[in-house]
C-alpha cells in the first residue's frame, strides 16, 4: 500500500487492484472501458487525476497516462486542459467500435463479427466498378429510394431467400440499423408498444429507448416466441407492432420453424400489428423457409441487411414493405436518409448479379459449420431448433451471477463474452445465459483456445 493511502479517499473511479494483470496499462484501460460501456461511469463523469490514480494503485504515472491514451483513442474519454479528463457523452457506442488486435489482451468472443475474410471478393468487385464509364452517375442525389437497377438486384436477392415484393415496394438503406431507425421513426410514435423476444437484439432495445418506444417482452420456448404468450400480451396491452429475427434469433440462435411462423402471423393479423422482420441471418435458414412477412402481406416491413451475409463495411440493407406503408416510409427516407450511397449499392448489386454473392455465403456457411463443430466438442447444444450455422451460441449459466461479475471474471481468464442481461428487453429474474461469438476470433485455433478458457471458467464457477 502506498504511504499516502487512498483506500478511504473519495474517488469517482477506483479500479479493482485484484483485477490488474500485466501489461498494467492495458489492464487498467480494459477496466476503465468496461465500467464506461456498462454504465458504471455515466457520461461526463470527471475521472480522478492521473497522479491520484497512480498513487492509489502504487504504480508509475506514465502507466496511467498510457492507459488513458488507449481509452481516449477509442473515444471513451476526453481531456479538457486545466479541468481534467471526462467520460464522453456517447461512450457506450464504443462497444461496437472495431478493435485493433494489438490492443487486445483477451480473446474476443463477445462482438459478433461477420467472417469478413471474404472481403477480398468484394474488393475485386469494387475494382471492376471503378473502371466503368457510368461511375459518375452513382455519386449524385438522384433516386433516394435506390436506383431502379439496384432495386431489381435487391428483389432478386430477396427472392433468393423466398421473399418477394414488387420493385416499387423496395428501398435501399444505409445498413440494417439505419433501416430499423427509419421504420421506427416513420411508422411508430413515442409511447407506442412493440412486442419482442424476452432476449433480443440489444441495438434494437437501445434504439427503442432513444425513441421512447416501449418494448413488451414475450416468453419463448425451444421454437421461439410463443403465440399464446403474444396473444395474451396483445389482450393486456395495446400493442402497435412486433419485432422478430426468425432465421437465427440474436442472441438465442433459434430458427423459427414454419408452423411457428404461421402461428405468429395469425396473431399479427388478428391484432393488426405492424411486423418488423429483421432477416439479417436469412442466408443461414433452411432452403425454402418462407419469411413471416409472406403470411401477412398487408402488415409487414421486411429488412434484409447484407452486413453478416456479404460485407459489413458496405452499409447496405434492402427493405420491402406492404402497400399501406409506402407513403410513410418514402417520406421517412426523403427526410432521414436523403439517399443511400449509390456506389455502395452498385457494389452489392454487382455481387448479386455476377453470382459472387452466392459464393460468399457458401464460404461463410462452410466456415461457420467448422466453428460450430468445434463448439460442439466443448459444449452440448440441447435445443435442436438452434441454427447449426449460427455465428454465436447461447449457453445457460448453472450458477447465477451479475453481468459485471461474470464478464470481468471472463476477462481475467483472457476471454471477452457477453452475459444475457445485455439482451433482456426488460430486466427481471429470468434464467441466465452467455452469448458466445464463434466468428470474432482471428481463426479456428484462437477460437479453440477461447473455448478451452471458457470451459475452465465455467468449471471454476461451480
UniProtKB/TrEMBL annotation:
Its cofactor is pyridoxal 5'-phosphate. InterPro entries: Aminotransferase_I/II_large (IPR004839), HTH_trans_reg/aminotransferase (IPR051446), PyrdxlP-dep_Trfase (IPR015424), PyrdxlP-dep_Trfase_major (IPR015421), PyrdxlP-dep_Trfase_small (IPR015422), Tscrpt_reg_HTH_GntR (IPR000524), WH-like_DNA-bd_sf (IPR036388), WH_DNA-bd_sf (IPR036390). It comes from the Bacteria. Keywords: Aminotransferase, DNA-binding, Pyridoxal phosphate, Transcription, Transcription regulation, Transferase. SUPFAM superfamilies: PLP-dependent transferases, Winged helix' DNA-binding domain. In the C-terminal section; belongs to the class-I pyridoxal-phosphate-dependent aminotransferase family. PANTHER family: HTH-TYPE TRANSCRIPTIONAL REGULATORY PROTEIN GABR. This is Transcriptional regulator, GntR family. It comes from Paenibacillus macquariensis.
Amino acid at each position: 500500500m502506498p504511504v499516502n493511502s487512498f483506500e478511504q479517499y473519495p474517488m469517482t473511479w477506483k479500479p479493482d487492484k485484484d483485477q490488474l494483470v500485466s501489461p498494467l496499462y492495458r489492464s487498467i484501460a480494459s477496466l476503465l472501458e468496461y465500467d464506461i460501456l456498462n454504465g458504471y461511469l455515466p457520461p461526463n463523469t470527471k475521472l480522478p487525476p492521473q497522479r491520484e490514480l497512480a498513487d492509489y494503485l502504487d504504480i508509475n504515472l506514465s502507466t496511467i497516462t498510457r492507459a488513458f491514451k488507449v481509452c481516449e483513442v477509442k473515444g471513451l474519454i476526453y481531456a479538457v486542459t486545466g479541468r481534467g479528463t471526462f467520460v464522453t457523452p456517447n461512450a457506450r457506442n464504443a462497444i461496437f467500435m472495431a478493435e485493433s488486435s494489438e490492443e487486445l489482451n483477451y480473446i474476443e468472443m463477445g462482438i459478433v463479427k461477420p467472417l469478413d475474410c471474404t472481403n477480398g471478393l468484394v474488393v475485386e468487385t469494387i475494382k471492376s466498378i471503378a473502371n466503368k464509364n457510368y461511375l459518375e452517375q452513382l455519386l449524385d442525389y438522384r433516386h433516394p429510394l435506390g436506383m431502379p437497377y439496384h432495386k431489381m438486384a435487391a428483389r432478386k436477392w430477396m427472392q433468393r431467400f423466398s421473399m418477394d415484393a414488387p420493385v416499387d415496394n423496395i428501398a435501399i438503406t444505409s445498413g440494417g440499423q439505419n433501416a430499423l431507425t427509419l421504420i421506427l421513426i416513420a411508422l411508430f410514435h413515442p409511447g407506442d408498444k412493440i412486442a419482442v423476444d424476452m432476449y433480443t437484439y440489444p441495438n434494437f432495445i437501445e434504439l427503442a429507448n432513444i425513441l421512447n418506444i416501449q418494448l413488451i417482452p414475450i416468453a419463448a420456448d425451444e421454437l421461439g416466441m410463443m403465440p399464446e404468450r403474444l396473444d395474451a400480451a396483445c389482450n393486456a396491452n395495446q400493442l402497435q407492432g412486433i419485432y422478430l429475427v426468425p432465421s437465427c434469433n440474436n442472441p438465442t440462435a433459434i430458427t423459427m420453424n414454419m408452423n411457428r411462423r404461421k402461428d405468429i402471423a395469425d396473431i399479427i393479423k388478428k391484432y393488426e400489428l405492424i411486423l418488423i422482420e429483421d432477416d439479417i441471418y436469412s442466408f443461414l435458414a433452411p432452403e425454402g423457409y418462407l419469411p413471416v412477412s409472406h403470411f401477412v402481406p398487408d402488415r409487414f416491413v421486411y429488412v434484409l441487411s447484407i452486413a453478416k451475409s456479404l460485407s459489413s463495411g458496405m452499409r447496405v440493407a434492402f427493405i420491402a414493405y406492404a402497400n399501406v406503408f409506402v407513403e410513410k416510409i418514402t417520406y421517412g427516407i426523403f427526410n432521414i436518409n436523403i439517399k443511400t450511397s449509390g456506389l455502395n449499392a452498385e457494389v452489392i448489386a454487382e455481387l448479386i448479379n455476377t453470382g459472387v454473392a452466392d459464393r460468399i455465403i457458401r464460404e461463410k456457411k462452410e466456415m461457420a459449420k467448422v466453428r460450430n463443430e468445434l463448439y460442439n466438442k466443448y459444449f452440448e447444444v440441447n435445443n435442436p431448433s438452434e441454427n447449426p450455422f449460427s455465428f454465436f451460441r447461447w449457453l445457460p449459466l448453472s450458477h447465477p451471477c451479475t453481468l459485471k461479475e461474470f464478464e470481468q471474471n471472463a476477462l481475467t481468464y483472457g476471454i471477452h463474452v457477453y452475459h444475457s442481461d445485455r439482451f433482456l428487453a426488460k430486466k427481471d429474474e429470468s434464467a441466465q445465459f452467455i452469448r458466445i461469438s464463434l466468428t470474432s476470433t482471428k481463426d479456428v485455433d484462437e477460437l479453440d483456445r477461447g473455448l478451452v478458457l471458457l470451459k475452465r471458467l465455467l468449471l471454476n464457477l461451480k
